[in-house]
Every structure is written in C-alpha cells, then in structure tokens.
User: Fold these one by one.
Assistant:
Number 1:
Amino acid sequence: MNAIRAHEFGDPDVLALEDVSQPEPAADEALVRVHAASVNPIDWIVRRGEFDDPIWATRPWIPGWDLSGVVESIGSDVETLSPHDAVHGMVRMPRSGSTYAEYATVPADEVVRKPASLDHVGAAAVPMVGLTAWRALFEEVSVGPGDRVLIHAAAGGVGHVAVQLAKEAGATVVGTASGNNERFLRDLGVDEFVDYRIERFKAVVDDVDVVLDGVGGDTLERSAEVLVEGGDLVTLPVEPDAEQRDRLRREHGVETHWFSVEPDAAVLGEIDALVDEGRVEPVVSETYPLAEAAAAHDESETGHVRGKLVLDVRAESDA
Ligand SMILES: NC(=O)c1ccc[n+]([C@@H]2O[C@H](COP(=O)([O-])OP(=O)(O)OC[C@H]3O[C@@H](n4cnc5c(N)ncnc54)[C@H](OP(=O)(O)O)[C@@H]3O)[C@@H](O)[C@H]2O)c1
C-alpha cells in the first residue's frame, strides 16, 4: 500500500510517499481502508522532532491521527464493527495513529460510524478538533447558557468547532482572528469579533467567564486580564507550568487548564449527532492528495488555515 513515511524528523520534505506493507489488525482492532486523513498541528510538531519520544513516533514514522474510511476486516475479538462499515475517529493518541496511508489498523473502540451527512473528507476533519473543543468547553469547564466565552484562533480547526459548540450550549461567543475571517466567524455564530491584527482584545473585551486559547504565549498571559474573578482559562498549545498557573491564580483569580486530547468514542458520537442534525458543521478549506502531504504541512505551518486541511487519500489512489 502507499503511505507517507518519515525516516527522520525535520522539514516537510522528510515526508515521502512509499510502498509499505499493509498492517494487520490485532484481535481488538479493525483494518480500515482510509479514504481521508486530516492534518492537525500536532502532525507537523512531531514531524519537526519537537516530541522526539518513542511514545509519539518511532521511525520510520507514518504521521496522522484522524481518519475516515471503510472497515476492510476485523480482529477476532471485535463485535462492534463489521466489514464495509464507514467509520471515523482519532486513533491511538498519543501513540502513532499512522493514518497518512491507504490502510490503517484502528482500535475498534476508538472509531464510530461516520456521520451520514458527511463524506469521508468532512468526517476526517472532525475527530481531533471536535474532541478537543468538547473537552475544553464541557469537561475541563462546563460552558452553558449565559456564559461569555472568548475563543482565540476561532477560525482554526479547534476554534471553528468550539464556536459552534459554545453557541449550541447557549453561550455568548467572542472570537479572535484576522479580519479576513470576520465574515466566516459571524456566519458560524460569533456574537463579537476581534481582529487581533488591528486591536488588542484586552482593550475591547472584558467580563469573560471562559477563555479557550488556541494561540498561547502572550495571548495566554493577556487572556487572564479579561476574565472575571474565578474565571477559567483553557489553553491548548503548551502546558503551563505550576509557577505560571499559581501566578495567574494569585494575580488575576483565574484557573488555568491544559490537557492532552485522547480518543473518546462516546463524545465523538455526541458530536456526530450534532453534525447530522445540522447544528455543527466542519469546514474543510482545502484537500490534498496523499502524495502532497508535505505541501499540506507547509500550509498548516503558516498558522493561518481556516477550518481544516484534509488529505483525500482515495482521490489519489483512484487517479
Ligand atoms: N492540547 C491538546 O490536546 C491540543 C489538541 C488540539 C490542538 N492543540 C493545539 O491548539 C492550537 C490550535 O489548534 P488548531 O488545530 O485549531 O490550529 P490551526 O487550525 O492551525 O489554527 C489556525 C488558526 O489560528 C488563527 N490564528 C493564528 N494566530 C492567531 C492569533 N494571534 N490570534 C487569533 N487567531 C490566530 C488563524 O487565524 P487567522 O488566519 O485569521 O490569523 C487560523 O485560523 C495548536 O497549537 C494545536 O497544537 C492542542
């Protein structure tokens, strides 16, 4: 089968399309013919060697955690899936998911039926960003009616789903992005928009109950200043250390949260129900054939993707 592999960590050109042997499912796994695999920042963070730890990637490494495809065969213990089922999920996180390939084995309890309303490209876009947004808003904190939520990087993968989930929960949503994403975010439901390139959100936003920070660094620090006393700051990019958490609590009275997203089939099923009801919609701004995974990483690494990038794996193998 064709797969994207890296024999070393580094620039996007370490990603090469290679002919590799098809993986065999273990007793509790399924073999999935991958139709689409989405690109997430963690894919290129690991590719760069920033997590040079065997938990994340042994070499040669096949990148990717999100996939949508069709079950080809199942291991002897699998009772929940059958061949021909269309499934999607974020698999094996943080161990290698290896979804940038024509076939991938997946733990049967980490995938669910693909939402009927989405094609495989759309379905591959959902799992990691959906699970992250859900956990941030409803497990780390519990966003509900009347809450005022500030979402940084609102136009990105996690952000654009988080905007929709927070609105579904009855919150008032403030989103930050550059001006060319204002229409996009207003259409998704943001109540207030801040163009971070022309104004500092600190000057125009206050009394926020929850911040979801997909940017980090200085944005994280400044976010503490717009939260109400006792507010919650969920940051995604980098785990804050104890000193920073203590300081933000002491100086601003806010609680800082960070987590590492994990597979959760039950939550993915809940997100999919919202998708099928038309209440949450993943937005795919561009697709690439599998062979052009390096170009997809180049684009993702700009930090300015709207919604999601997806590798359309079948498009290439049928070409
Ligand atoms: N801890 C976890 O488990 C976990 C899980 C998932 C993701 N993450 C992390 O969360 C972050 C976001 O992930 P993602 O998938 O949403 O990334 P992404 O899709 O690549 O985010 C791109 C978006 O960021 C926006 N952006 C860039 N700089 C900004 C700024 N200064 N202020 C506001 N918006 C800005 C861009 O909007 P413009 O083009 O308008 O600038 C773009 O739409 C990444 O660091 C990722 O690694 C962590």
Number 2:
Amino acid sequence: MRSTLFLVVSYTVLGDCMEVLRIGSSGPMVYLLQSVLKTLGFYQGAVDGLFGSGTYNAVKFFQSRFGLIADGIVGANTWNALMPYINGYTNYTVKRGDSIYKIAQKYSTTMNRIIAANPGINANLLNIGQKIIVPFGRIVRSDVPFSSDIVRMNLNALTKVYPFLTLGSMGESVRGKDLFYMRLGTGTQREVFYSAAIHANEWITAGVMLKFIENYSLAYVEYRRIGTIDIRNLFQTASIYIEPLCNPDGVDLVTGAIKLGSETYLSAQALANNYPNLPFPNGWKANIRGVDLNLQFPAGWEQAREIKFGQGYTKPGPRDYVGARPLNQPESLAMYEFTLAHDFRLILAYHTQGRVIYWQYQDYVPENSREIGELFARMTGYRLETTPFASGFAGYKDWFIQNYNRQGYTFEVGLGVNPLPLSQFNQIYRENEGVLVTAATV
Ligand SMILES: [Zn+2]
C-alpha cells in the first residue's frame, strides 16, 4: 500500500505518465533516455532507440550515482531524476548566501536566463526558501525522433523556461492528441504561420520548428540578433505562430511511439495492406485514418481527387488518399479554422524532401511572392520551382494562396528517402533558420 502511494505521488510530481523502460524496450522514449544519458556521460553507445545491455548498464550507473535502486529499469523515480536534464531546467530553492550570479555560476547558465524564467523576480532581493526556475543547457535534442510525447515535453519545457512564449492548442487529433501551436512575439503589425509534419514520415520538420522556437527564445533572452534581425524588436512588432506537429498520430506510427502489434498499429497496417507496394510504416504520410491531410483543403480538391484516384489512391492508406470530402479530418479542419481566425500575411509549410521551395498555386501570383521566394532560395541554397501539376491541388499552401492571395511557400527540406535520418537534422536547421526569422519581416 505504501509503495503504491509513493508511486502515485511520484507520477503526480512528474505530471506525465512516463513509459516504464527496460531491457527489450524500443521507440522514441528509449532514444530520449539514451540521448540524455549520453549527454551526462553515462552512456557511450549508439542512440538507436533499442534498450540493450549498454543502455541497461548506463541506467544502473546513473541510478547508483543518483542514490536510486540500481535495477536498470526506468520507472517513475528514475524518470524524475532525469527530468531536469530532459527539460533543461531545475526547480531550485534559494539558500542563505545565494545570489542570481552565484546560482548562474553553479549551473553554468546566465543571469539573463534565470531572470527571464522567473518573471517578477527581484534580482537584488532573493529570499531564503524562495522557489525559482533555473534553466541550464538546451531542451530540443537533435538525435531523437519527434513523437507527439517528445514534442509535447519540449513545448512544455520551452514555455516554462521562456514564459514570454504562448503555448496553445487548436484542437485534437483523431487519437485525442493536442494540436499545439506556439506564438512567438506579441506584435500585431505582422502575423505569420509556419506548419510542419503534416505528413507523418516527414517528422524531422517538427524538430526544426522546435529548435527554431528555442533559438529564437534564447536570442530574445540574451538580447541577440539572428542574422541581421534584432529579436527583441521583432518580438514587439511581429507574431510568429508555429504548429510543429500537424499530424501527431501519423508521426507516432512512423516513429514507433505506437507499438508494433498494438490495436492502432494493426488497424493502420490493415489500411496499408491495400497498398502492398508502399513500405510500412516508413511510407506512411497520412493521418491515422489513412487520409492525406495535405490533400484535404478546399483548393481544387475535386481536381486532386481525380488525379489521385487516377493514380490508384482510391481508399484510405499510407498516402495520397484525399478523404471522402474536404476537411473531414480533425487535423486539417483545425488548421483551416485556426487560419481563418487569424490574419496571416504569409505561411510556410514544411515538408521533406528535395531541397526545393514551391511558391505558386495555379496562376495566382501574390504580390512579391516570386521575389521573396528567390530570397528564400538564396538563403537556403534550395531551388525555387513551380509545383508539379499532379501535386498542385488541395494542399494547405494552395488553399492559403487561393483564399488570401498572399505569399505561401512549401519547403521540401533535406535530401533522400523519407523519413530522413536524424544525421541531416543540423544541416537542415542551419539552412532554414534565416528564412524562419526573415519570413516574419518581409
Ligand atoms: Zn510532405
């Protein structure tokens, strides 16, 4: 009875029902565990999402160093001990003789970061016993798959450490996952919207968005520029809205967060059996009901239907099925309604792959859209191209351009076969950071 009570308390502290991991476990949370243990110096092996003997020994090493029972099983207590290193902050109680400067030194962080994380704090008058948040290190990792759980944990940690960010939800996926958006900035002169991972096996783009949120916030806190753009100034004048994970259920299927053999996995697999030539689950782009969310928008939807049916995509499956009617899936409908409720001057839709930027819908040519597209092409090193006819309808970007006659761009980042390997993450991020800031100013 006592131990049960203790576990419940631990979970409450965690605020998150974390998966128990042990030898034989696999999936995104194992990647996360390995990545954190590696950063801390407890693990030297590959970050590969497979909990084997190397991971087991690293967990035991960590547990004994942190005064936990060294059983090699990652349960609530071990997760609790890992949380500060996953989330990049710790809850600190002020002690006698502390100052912001001393605390910053102790955690190898900056005074600016501590002050920003604790609005209203009086840096000259800390009280003994006072609880503060001390951010240290980074939150967004470049070596883990961006499953819905990892994205949610990252967004929550970012909001905690950078309380000037606004986290919201525009709806829920088929499986009830929040469709999160983050607002960067309070400005109303110019609002823009970036979306990513609407296609399941393009989940690497979710990480690109998260890392951008983190770098933008850090630049804000440290009074820095990104490129030539002053982030404090941009924050006051513009608002960047980001939906990093438009298709959480599909991404969970491809990343292995939905376990092999589970009910959800099996029903997706049954849909995939309609298309035996497509790899499963790696070829999966659709939402969990087998509808391609980026073929759901009311911009030439009938045309898209005709083209895709002609190609044989006549029923739910891993890709290219347009659905029974436009916007009949919660994920696409949420994006549509969120867009209508705002006044976005420009949108960016992030996909993989090809190192290409598409800028048009039909014969719409929004003002300056080619010039801005050429600027983005120069900044990224990607080609600016006209959308191929067969994929030129019913996408989010297509609808945005048609509905507003404003600039909308599809970015096909990286190169190779989807899902792109995480080894491309840092390069993709570097190529796109400048665009992500500049798009809020052009
Ligand atoms: Zn795509």
